[in-house]
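Tokens as discussed.
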């Protein structure tokens, strides 16, 4: 069956160094799943926190299902993530260190189940972001120069 991507968090790669990745399941309501199947979700500004040995996803916006009735879900509710206890403890230990946070990188369906890929992230400083942009520009210019050179020959 494979994976079907719902949405990416491109901003996370811009704002953070991703050091480690984890996969987690999500506890969802029926209308949330239907909305996700339609691709109506937004990962921007979302983050995960560990509380009482459980991990929760904050600020994940899933649009209300268009054909839902009064049983429709709250778009910005707290969502519990499903992970092994050892993984949660590992994340909690890292989060307590200064500068680390857990951010969702992408939301997808895997074998029919909604999953979120979490990244253990360390915040980038402004000069790091500038450096990354400079590298990206240089690689783009090199690729463009190579294309132009290959066209002329």
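Sequence:
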């Amino acid at each position: 069956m494979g994976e079907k991507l719902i949405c990416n968090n491109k901003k996370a790669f811009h704002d953070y160094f991703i050091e480690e990745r984890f996969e987690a399941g999500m506890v969802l309501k029926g209308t949330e799943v239907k909305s996700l199947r339609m691709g109506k979700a937004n990962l921007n500004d979302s983050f995960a926190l560990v509380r009482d040995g459980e991990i929760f996803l904050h600020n994940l916006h899933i649009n209300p299902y268009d054909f839902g009735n009064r049983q429709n879900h709250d778009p910005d509710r707290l969502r519990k993530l499903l992970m092994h206890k050892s993984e949660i403890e590992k994340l909690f230990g890292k989060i307590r260190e200064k500068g680390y946070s857990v951010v969702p990188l992408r939301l997808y369906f895997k074998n029919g189940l909604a999953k979120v890929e979490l990244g253990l992230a360390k915040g980038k400083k402004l000069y790091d972001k500038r450096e990354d942009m400079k590298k990206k520009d240089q690689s783009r210019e090199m690729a463009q120069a190579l294309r132009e050179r290959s066209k002329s020959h």
